[in-house]
Design a protein that fits this description.
Length: about 375
C-alpha cells in the first residue's frame, strides 16, 4: 500500500477571528464544544492511515503546542513517524527562501526522511471529515502531478469570497485557479502531491525567489502541470471570520449536519480532559443545545453550545450563544447572540445581546 505523509501548513492563515485570536492562532480556536479547529485536519490524516504529520506554525503557537503535546490523542506519539510541530527556525545563513517556502526549505528533512510516496498538504480553516485514501486513489488513476480538493458550495457566504475557486473541465482537470466571487467551486486548501515532484518544485520556487508555494509553485505553473480536481461531498465549513465561526457552529445543532461531520467510523479526536458529567438542576431548562462534560446548569439554555466546565446560575438565560471553557454565568444574567472565550465571568443581572449576523464577542479571561 502506498504511504502518505501529512503537512498542515498554517503559514498563510490570517488570524481574522478578532478577540478569539488575540492570544492564539486560528488553528487553536476552540470549536464544537470540546475540539480545536486543528483537530479536524489531524484527525482526517490519522483516519486516513497517515502516521507522520508535520505542522508549520509561525505565529501565536503556544496554545497550539500546549493542545497538541506529543500527539497522543491522535495516536501520533510514535517511535517512527508521529507528530512534528515545526515553529520558525531560520538559522541557515545561506537560506534565500521567503514566505511559507521558508518552512519547506528549513524542514526539508521531514520530506526527505519520510518513507511516504505522497504528501497531503492541508490548512486548518476548512472543517470537514475526509478520507485521503479516496483522494489518493483518484490521484493515481488520473496520472496528475497534483490533486486539489474542492467543495461545490450551493449557497455562498462572505467567507467564500476570499477563498480560491477552481475552473474544471469535463475530465476533472483544473484549467484555472482564481478568486471570482461568482464561482461555486471552493478550493479547500488541501491537495495531494507526489513526494519527488514536491521536492523538485520546492527547489525551483526558492531558486526563482517565490514566497507562496501553492500560488507560485502550483497555481503559477498552470497549464504546464496536470492538476486534477477531487470533489468533496460531505459536511463542510470554511471558518475565516467571527461571523463564519458563529454561523457554522450553529449548524452543528442540526443533527444531520453534526452526524455527518462526527462519524462513528471516522471520529474526530482531541486532547483528553477528564471531567465529571454535566449536572442539570431542577431549575434548569435546556433545549437544542450542545453541552460538553463538567458543566453545571441551573438556568435556561437554548440553541447554544457550552464547552467544558461552564457554570450557568439560576435564573440566567442563554440563547443562540457559544460559551467556552470554564466560563461562569451568574444568576439572572442574560446572553443572546454572544460568544464568550475561555474563563469569562458574567456578573449577576448583566445583559449582553449581539446581532445574529454580528455576535457580541468577549475575549478570554474578561469579566463583566
Amino acid at each position: 500500500m502506498d504511504r502518505i505523509a501529512g503537512i498542515i501548513n498554517l503559514d498563510h492563515e490570517q488570524d481574522m477571528l478578532d478577540e478569539l485570536t488575540y492570544f492564539r492562532c486560528g488553528a487553536a480556536v476552540p470549536f464544537a464544544g470540546r475540539y480545536r479547529m486543528i483537530d479536524f485536519a489531524i484527525s482526517n490524516m490519522t483516519n486516513s492511515r497517515i502516521e507522520s504529520v508535520a505542522v508549520f506554525a509561525r505565529r501565536k503557537y503556544r496554545s497550539l503546542m500546549d493542545h497538541l503535546e506529543q500527539g497522543k490523542a491522535w495516536d501520533l506519539d510514535r517511535k517512527r513517524g508521529g507528530l512534528f510541530i515545526l515553529p520558525p527556525d531560520w538559522n541557515d545563513p545561506t537560506d534565500i527562501s521567503r514566505g511559507d517556502l521558508q518552512h519547506f526549505h528549513n524542514n526539508i528533512d521531514f520530506i526527505n526522511r519520510t518513507l511516504a510516496d505522497y504528501i497531503v498538504i492541508s490548512g486548518s480553516q476548512h472543517i470537514c471529515n475526509i478520507d485521503y485514501q479516496d483522494v489518493l486513489q483518484e490521484h493515481k488513476e488520473s496520472g496528475a502531478d497534483v490533486t486539489v480538493i474542492y467543495k461545490r458550495v450551493d449557497e455562498m457566504y462572505s467567507e467564500h469570497e476570499r477563498a480560491h475557486k477552481l475552473d474544471i473541465d469535463g475530465n476533472n482537470r483544473v484549467t484555472n485557479i482564481h478568486n471570482d466571487r461568482s464561482s461555486h467551486n471552493v478550493y479547500m486548501d488541501m491537495y495531494i502531491i507526489d513526494k519527488e515532484f514536491l521536492y523538485n518544485l520546492i527547489e525551483k520556487c526558492i531558486a526563482h525567489g517565490c514566497s507562496n508555494f501553492f500560488l507560485d509553485g502550483i497555481k503559477g505553473k498552470l497549464p504546464n502541470i496536470h492538476i486534477n480536481a477531487y470533489e468533496y461531498h460531505g459536511t463542510h465549513a470554511l471558518i475565516n471570520s467571527v461571523e463564519s465561526y458563529y454561523r457554522n457552529s450553529a449548524k452543528l445543532l442540526n443533527a444531520s449536519e453534526h452526524d455527518d461531520l462526527f462519524k462513528e467510523d471516522a471520529p474526530i479526536y482531541t486532547k483528553v480532559k477528564n471531567e465529571a458529567p454535566s449536572n442539570y438542576t431542577q431549575s434548569s431548562h435546556v433545549t437544542n443545545t450542545m453541552v460538553a462534560n463538567g458543566c453545571v446548569i441551573e438556568g435556561e439554555v437554548e440553541d447554544s453550545i457550552l464547552f467544558r466546565g461552564v457554570k450557568v446560575g439560576e435564573g440566567a438565560v442563554i440563547k443562540n450563544s457559544i460559551i467556552m471553557q470554564r466560563c461562569e454565568i451568574e444568576e439572572g444574567a442574560v446572553l443572546e447572540n454572544v460568544i464568550l472565550d475561555k474563563d469569562c465571568t458574567i456578573s449577576s443581572g448583566k445583559t449582553l445581546i449581539g446581532a445574529p449576523e454580528k455576535p457580541y464577542v468577549l475575549a478570554k479571561r474578561r469579566s463583566m
